[in-house]
Write a structure and sequence with these properties.
- With 1454 residues, the protein is mostly beta strands.
- Helix content is 4%, strand content 45%.
- The protein contains ten helices and 109 strands.
């Protein structure tokens, strides 16, 4: 049975044994419902002592290490470790996520605390700076961030009596923070002489600026403001780990095992010494206390939770136990009872009842335990130790039967034979020893075939064979009990195994990913009856597979909860449960097995239940029997949008070329040309890899995109207006619900989304900073306030924006595979769906994150690739179109049914008031009723249905439909072939816009005397376009191969076309029928040119470095031009038709005589004198200036000269069209630059009368027409495109003062060297020279005075007097401006100098000062608004900006 699908049964987490006490503190609380909340491994646990029941929060994917309870005691915040750790705020009642806070911390989140009203949350990171962050947690928004301390911070708390104040403490420090605006400013606590400077472990705030803190030596330090005022010595005998404030007072817990209760003034009430109670033991250490009413919760270092009732304080009740610190490897299940046995490096062996969920026995051994096994009769328990010995205990009373040590290395696996006669013991010194149980464990055999440590073993059912796995991944067989190795494979094939726990072998091939290191699966256990098996691996995942599982890379269901290594996993004796244990998190998880038949009922269980399974995703790729991808989708998923160089890199690249610039700047260069061009019309529509990107606007115009242009097309007047704010390919477009604004997303290193107005064509908002490489999908919410976007980075990040404010609300990694569409729920803007390759996910916003759930398919089949989606008529209904032509109907996350809608993928859907419209690859538009029960009408897109007013021709019947939109009584359809059609409800179809299909467009030729042009492309078509105002495609012809060049004959009657297989055709320019065709070359024909005049010769250049010259009349090849060392790129004839100029890929400029093709050498001065019939060359002294500074990175691909030889237009690999004056001599000429194409502009041509410039853009498939505007003609309308010069240094330069100021560097002068040269040693350094490590980091912040830090008690010192600033002479004028202002109607003057803001009273001549800055102030401004009188803002050299409230000065409250 080679079924690779995932099993249909599943596991549900039922109980977790343990509590995280080690390396954590203050992580145990009572909720409002009197439940207890804590965490273990990666699971948040809510335990109800009344019902003895646990609920689990499974939103983390690594160890949780911090927890805070909201003041209303229902919500919980937890923080985890990891590379990109995050904080979850969740509801302890429903265990659902409320908010996710992420993207700031690294390494982990050490502490968390809510403020008094629960609106804000503070978190501390584990990074090197121990960053402190304050969050508006509901919005998921970071309010403030600051470096916390250079050493670990252990606790942080809001001052509950003063808003905006916090206190943090940690290694040898305590800090008092104030939050002002978005800046957090710390003041260090002054220990003074009252107490020793030492590590502070916990704290609690009280009234009147009093803070109590617990120190490492067991004292309690009492602070008033930032000063230490008294200490309570010996409160505990050792470090105080936890302090908890409640209405009655304070509770503290320490390493000495005591809990002390104090009243509100910190007078002692009582002591509870847990070590002295019945359950106590030596070394008990308290990590967490929580006092509520007459109950106290205590969490210990060794994973126990005690509950103490105050009036019976000597009888604490033990409500949770777990293993202590140390790895946990040993696990065994009882053969007949619901018991599990575990043993750990903490040297204890414990027996757990799977029914009562409790520890029923424990016994401490001498050595760390590494494995365990129970005999078949359930009487003996064998334990393998780390030192190579093993011990056998009686299960009944845990007394020792025997202790044997035959090995030096750890015993990693032992098993009893099914008949109970033998015990096999596998050790790390590569051997298995066999002991006879009845002979009081006498050694009876030895297996020594392995070369590595033994990891797993299984007995055969008849106890005659043993199979082993070792560290090399080898599987060996032995005959029992002698231990002789079995090499005959046939003999082994028939063996029935009593258990299967081995990780290698045919039956478990499928548990291994296709490419994997052999040791990352730690444990396997097969359930033969249920035909499933469970595995445990190094990534904290428990997986469920079918058994047997023969083919690699089988599908599975996975369950998270353990944080890192899951070391062992076993089925219970009756297969009701699975028990798994975690190595480093030393927790024991008990999972309930839910077989197939029960699943049907569990679809309708409580939300809590379904959530637990919501994290148990199917495997990495859910199904095995996925149909092969549709060719078109396959093609699309392989498109890469990565660029070698992005436009964002230009400034840097130019910087790198500075030297070249300097040399060029000395020469006088031509001005940029006076004339300019303006984008006039674009042929093309991006359909081949985009969808749903075509809409009607409010006014009935049509908005879509092609290349880097957003186009608004007026179909009545056949005119276009352009949004030119993008600088690279636009990949997606969405329209605002009011149909007046549009959002477009582009390709880019840090790609941006523009929201712009379709009437004014002005940008309203630009969003960037979150998507790498590009944005492939956008969608507005129904209220128009939010925007969702999806990136094309490796994780396809999904971001939710408040677009008007430009604020990111939430973000999440979407999927490894491509996502095609994102849709926001029109009824609930916090919900959205995404669809893509084998992907249908339902998301809801939680603070700064999004929580996703996969669509539940149930028994209805498999996850298909989804191409489109819409929401239906209620908030829980949604519909998606699949790659197989079905429409899936979803309710909430469940698939209700599927309807066959199209042959081939459904690419587009649109929801109407009453019904839906869909479009597919089959070229059919279908109208449906509102339940997808009936198809009401279909329209096939066919040539026969084209209406007479069409602006072009349909290339083929039934083109693949990529976009559909409705409005104004019509259906708007966009096709993969780049056509936009309008379908009338009654049937006729009008073609409005069209361009080339997918493939690069290179060939372009303009007619010698008519306003038409021809293009040829890799899409295997040759097209003729009308350039007059009717703007349409006149003719099209399909070719057998793609083409790269074309040319009209001088009389305009013939058209020559060069193809990619080395052949070329000459066709009739009107009918496009063949006149003649040739093939003399194998490689691409790169350029083709008729000679001027009568057009006697035709020059044909190819990529195999030759130019062939043909006589057109006789149709014979008359010459071959040899001598080029690379492929030919450009050709031009001289006026006489006798000389040919050729450019090659190696940047050679060559000349050949026609017709024989003899090579000529012509000096460059002569070249300029020759009259050329055309100039499309990019080399030579006449066009030296067209090459940009970064010529190594980018190529100029094309040029064309106007007929008056004044202006040269060029196209380059960056998508720029530029105009230069001709001749462009000297390097780096000045130009005007226009952006509309996305990447390569492959060809540019002027029309016969120079009225238009025509350009084609390689991969963006577009053909653009630009009107040429003379210098005087330009109206005052803002120029569509940027006009740029390279640099402005030589254009008049700067005034000398301005130049000097421009060159001032503010970074170094304050921080580096002394202004005055010094000799000798400063007095206070004369005793000792500091070593390098001791030198304080250089900083302008006030250094801590050295002598205050050491606590020299006993030495009498004169108190240090305070200095008060009285007068400052000076004013900063040398490099600042507009920095003196009147205040209070001229009574005062405000200005600055050095780092002081100065308020000068004109009448009295006195000064008052603002001294919060710590570096030079460089700018100052006064708020003019009447509401904010006397508010001043000043900016300083480092990073902060202070808002000053100057009223404080005047009141003397400084």
């Amino acid at each position: 049975m080679a079924d690779r699908s995932a099993p249909s049964c599943h596991l549900r987490l039922e109980w977790v044994y343990g509590y995280r006490g080690h390396q954590c503190r203050n992580n145990l609380y009572y909720t409002a419902a009197k439940e207890i909340v804590y965490f273990v491994a990666g699971v948040g646990v809510v335990y109800s002592p009344r019902e003895h029941r646990q609920k689990f929060y499974l939103g983390h994917q690594d160890d949780i290490i911090s927890l805070a309870l909201h003041p209303e005691r229902v919500l919980v915040a937890t923080g985890q470790v990891g590379k990109e750790p995050y904080i979850c705020v969740w509801d302890s009642y429903t265990v659902q996520t409320i908010s996710v806070l992420k993207d700031v911390h690294t390494h982990g989140i050490a502490c968390l605390a809510f403020d008094l009203d629960g609106q804000r949350l503070v978190s501390v990171g584990l990074d090197s700076k121990n960053t402190v962050c304050v969050w508006d947690w509901r919005k998921g928004k970071l309010l403030s961030v600051a470096p916390g301390h250079t050493d670990r911070i252990f606790d942080i708390s809001w001052d509950l009596y003063q808003p905006n104040k916090l206190v943090s403490c940690g290694v040898k420090h305590i800090k008092f923070w104030s939050l002002c605006g978005n800046s957090l400013t710390p003041k260090r606590g002054v220990f003074g002489k009252t107490g020793d400077l030492q590590t502070i472990l916990c704290l609690a705030c009280a009234r009147d600026e009093v803070t109590y803190s617990g120190a490492l030596n067991g004292d309690i330090y009492v602070w008033k403001g930032i000063n230490l005022v008294r200490t309570i010595q010996g409160a505990h005998a050792a470090g105080i780990f936890s302090m908890n404030a409640c209405e009655e007072g304070f509770a503290t817990g320490g390493r000495d095992g005591c809990v002390r209760l104090w009243d509100l003034n910190f007078k002692p009430i009582t002591v509870i010494d847990l070590r002295e109670t019945d359950q106590g033991y030596k070394g008990l250490s308290v990590r967490s206390v929580c006092w509520r009413g007459d109950h106290i919760l205590v969490g210990t270092q060794d994973s126990e939770i005690f509950e103490i009732v105050v009036h019976e304080r000597n009888k604490p009740f033990l409500i949770m136990q777990g293993h202590c610190e140390g790895e946990l490897w040993a696990l065994a299940v009882h053969p007949t009872k619901p018991l599990a046995m575990t043993g750990s490096d903490d040297r204890s062996v414990r027996i757990w009842s799977l029914i009562d969920h409790a520890l029923i026995a424990r016994c401490n051994m001498e050595e760390p335990i590494r494995c365990a096994a129970v005999s078949t009769d359930g009487i003996h328990l064998a334990l393998g130790m780390k030192d190579g010995s093993f011990t056998v205990l009686r299960v009944r009373d845990m007394t020792e039967v025997v202790h044997i040590k035959d090995r030096k290395e750890a015993i990693h696996e032992l098993k009893y034979s099914p008949d109970g006669n033998f015990l096999a013991v596998g050790s790390n010194d590569s051997s298995v020893d066999i002991y006879g149980v009845v002979q009081r464990y006498k050694k009876v055999g030895e297996c020594i075939g392995s070369l590595s440590f033994i990891t797993h073993m299984d007995w055969s059912s008849d106890s005659k064979y043993l199979q082993t796995n070792d560290g090399n991944g080898k599987r060996l067989f032995y005959r029992m009990p002698s231990g002789k190795e079995v090499t005959n494979k046939e003999e082994v094939k028939v063996v029935q195994w009593a258990s299967w726990t081995c990780v290698s072998g045919l039956e478990v091939n499928g548990i291994w990913p296709k490419y994997s290191d052999i040791n990352d699966i730690n444990s396997v256990d097969a359930n033969f009856i249920g035909q499933v098996m469970v595995t445990a691996d190094d990534y904290g995942i428990v997986k469920l597979f079918r058994y047997p599982c023969l083919r690699k890379g089988a599908k599975f269901k996975k369950y998270l909860g353990h944080s890192a290594h899951v070391t062992n996993v076993r089925w219970s004796h009756d297969h009701q449960w699975v028990v798994s244990i975690g190595g480093a998190d030393h927790s024991v998880f008990q999972w309930k097995f839910v077989p197939d038949r029960k699943l049907k009922d569990s679809l309708h269980i409580a939300p809590q239940e379904s959530l637990v399974d919501s994290n148990s995703d199917e495997s990495d790729s859910d199904q095995s029997d996925v149909p092969e991808l549709d060719s078109e989708i396959e093609q699309e998923t392989q498109i890469t949008y990565r660029r070698q160089v992005y436009k964002e890199d230009l400034p840097q690249l130019k910087e790198q070329c500075k030297e070249k610039r300097k040399s060029a700047a000395s020469k006088r260069r031509e001005r940029a040309p006076g004339n300019s061009i303006r984008l006039h019309f674009v042929h093309g529509y991006r359909g081949y890899d985009c969808r749903s990107n075509l809409f009607y606007t409010q006014t009935g115009e049509i908005v879509y995109h092609v290349a880097a242009v957003g186009v608004v097309y007026n179909r009545q007047q056949n005119t276009q207006r352009f949004y030119l704010g993008h600088d690279d390919d636009i990949l997606c477009l969405a329209i605002h619900p009011l149909k007046d604004y549009v959002a477009t997303g582009q390709v880019g290193r840090d790609s941006s989304i523009h929201i712009w107005d379709t009437e004014t064509i002005k940008p309203l908002s630009v969003l960037k900073g979150y998507h790498q490489y590009g944005v492939c999908a956008v969608d507005f919410s129904a209220d128009g306030k939010r925007l969702a976007s999806v990136g094309i980075d490796d994780n396809h990040t999904i971001v939710l924006w408040d677009w008007k404010k430009g604020e990111k609300l939430s973000a999440v990694r979407g999927s490894k595979d491509k996502i095609f569409v994102v849709k926001i729920n029109p009824y609930m803007p916090d919900k959205l769906i995404t669809v893509g390759i084998k992907h249908m996910k339902f998301w809801r916003r939680a603070g700064g994150g999004l929580i996703g759930r996969k669509g539940c398919i149930g028994a209805l089949g498999r996850t298909d690739t989804m191409m489109c989606a819409v929401y239906g008529w209620t908030e829980e209904m949604s519909f998606s179109g699949t790659s197989t032509g079905d429409v899936c109907i979803w309710r909430d996350v469940f698939l209700m049914k599927t309807v066959k809608a199209h042959d081939g993928p459904v690419f587009s859907m649109h929801a109407l008031e009453k019904g839906f419209v869909t479009g597919g690859k089959d070229g059919v538009v279908a109208l449906w009723d509102d339940t997808f029960e009936r198809c009401l009408k279909t329209y096939a897109i066919k040539r026969a249905a084209l209406a007479p007013g069409s602006k072009g021709l349909l290339l083929e019947d039934n083109p693949s439909i990529r976009a559909i939109s409705l409005g104004h009584g019509h259906i708007l359809v966009g096709t993969k072939n780049g056509e936009i059609l309008e379908v009338d409800k009654s049937g006729p179809i009008t073609l409005l816009v069209q361009g080339h299909m997918e493939g690069e467009v290179w060939g372009l030729a303009t007619h010698p005397h008519l306003p038409i042009c021809a293009t040829v492309s890799d899409d295997k078509t040759l097209r003729i376009w009308d350039l007059s105002p009717s703007h349409c495609m006149l003719a099209v012809r399909k070719l057998k191969k793609g083409g790269r060049c074309c040319c009209f004959s001088p009389d305009g009657k013939a058209l020559a076309v060069g193809l990619n297989d080395g052949s070329f055709l000459i066709v009739n320019a009107d009918t496009l029928e063949d006149l003649v065709s040739f093939q003399h070359r194998k490689d691409v024909i790169s350029e083709i040119r008729f000679s001027p005049g009568a057009g006697k010769y035709l020059a044909v250049a190819s990529c195999d470095n030759f130019v062939d010259i043909y006589n057109v009349m006789s149709s014979k090849r008359v010459g071959i031009c040899k001598g080029a060392s690379s492929y030919i790129t450009h050709m031009d004839w001289d006026i006489r038709g006798k000389l040919l100029q050729v450019n090659t890929g190696a940047k050679e400029q060559l000349f050949f005589e026609a017709p024989r093709g003899k090579k000529q050498t012509i000096p460059s001065l002569e070249v300029e004198k020759i009259g050329w019939a055309s100039w499309t060359s990019v080399l030579g002294s006449c066009c030296e200036g067209i090459w940009p500074i970064i010529g190594e990175v980018t190529d100029v691909t094309a040029s064309c000269l106007t007929s008056d030889s004044k202006v040269l237009a060029t196209g380059d690999d960056f998508g720029f069209v530029k105009l230069f004056r001709y001749p462009a001599k000297g390097k780096f000429g000045k130009f005007k630059r226009y952006v509309a194409h996305s990447t390569h502009v492959t060809n540019v041509r002027w029309t016969y009368d120079d009225s238009l410039l025509v350009t084609v853009g390689g991969a963006d498939t577009s053909l653009m027409l630009w009107t040429y505007e003379m210098e005087g003609h330009r109206d005052s309308r803002q120029c569509d495109s940027e006009e740029s010069d390279l640099d402005s240094e030589e254009d008049g330069g700067y005034d000398s003062d301005v130049t000097r100021e421009n060159e001032i560097n503010y970074t170094i002068k304050a921080l580096s060297t002394n202004i005055r040269p010094m000799f000798g040693i400063k007095p206070h350094l004369q005793q000792k020279e500091p070593t390098l490590d001791e030198r304080p980091p250089v900083s302008r912040a006030l250094p801590q005075p050295e002598k205050l830090q050491t606590n020299n008690v006993g030495k009498k010192k004169r108190p240090i007097e305070d200095l008060i600033l009285e007068l400052v002479f000076g004013y900063r004028g040398k490099d600042c401006r507009n920095n003196v202002h009147y205040l209070n109607d001229g009574a005062d003057v405000i200005y600055h100098t050095a780092s002081v803001g100065i308020l000068y009273n004109v009448a009295t001549g006195s000064q008052s000062f603002y001294q919060e800055h710590n570096d030079d102030i460089l700018c100052l401004t006064v708020n003019q608004h009447p509401k904010f009188t006397n508010i001043v803002a000043t900016g300083q050299e480092t990073q902060q900006i202070c808002q000053q409230q100057l009223l404080l000065f005047m009141c003397g409250m400084q």
